[in-house]
Design brief:
PAP2/HPO, transmembrane, single chain, 6 helices, transmembrane helix, sphingosine-1-phosphate phosphatase activity, elongated, mainly alpha, membrane
Length: 171
């Protein structure tokens, strides 16, 4: 589906634009959430709705919905970061930014999640499990960064400073 390609491209572009360790950490979390949901899907092996057949006629699994878990990760982590973390120097500071971002990302993720059922790719329980998984993963991933568990945030700041120093000659 095109959604995953669009989201991946936008996220990669934002990582490159901001050169922020926090944004790279977020992207790594979204990737981990997606791949771990796929691993759970292979372990659970619950089939998709009967009217959904792969284009090659193969049976694919649907519990939990990977799309639902990934976009819910985005819709949970991004507002948390906007409200609780200082804006990165590459981003324009604005008092309204957290609200605007939340007003965009939450409905967008909701529509994608609901479309998985409307398009008959998943059942409600499969999408619900994906949503719960995405929220839990985003909250844990954010807390590790926010509380600097294992020194991840400190290491990210040091890597960012090193990148700025190494790129200074380009300016």
């Amino acid at each position: 589906m095109q959604t995953s390609k669009i989201v991946t491209t936008i996220t990669a572009g934002f990582v490159l634009y901001s050169r922020s360790a926090g944004v790279a950490y977020f992207a790594a979390g979204a990737t981990f959430c997606s791949f771990s949901a796929k691993a759970i899907k292979r372990a659970v092996r619950q089939k998709r709705p009967v009217y959904n057949v792969n284009s090659r006629g193969r049976v694919t699994y649907g519990m939990p919905s990977t799309h639902a878990s990934a976009v819910t990760f985005f819709a949970t982590y991004i507002p948390l970061a906007c409200f609780y973390l200082p804006p990165h120097p590459t981003l324009p500071p604005s008092i309204f930014q957290p609200k605007i971002v939340s007003l965009i990302v939450i409905p967008w993720a909701s529509l994608i999640t609901l479309s998985r059922v409307w398009l008959k790719y998943h059942t409600w329980p499969q999408v619900g499990a994906g949503v719960v998984y995405g929220v839990v993963m985003a909250c844990i991933w954010f807390q590790v960064w926010y509380d600097d568990i294992w020194g991840i945030r400190t290491l990210g700041g040091a890597l960012e400073a090193l990148l700025r120093l190494s790129m200074a000659w380009l300016v």
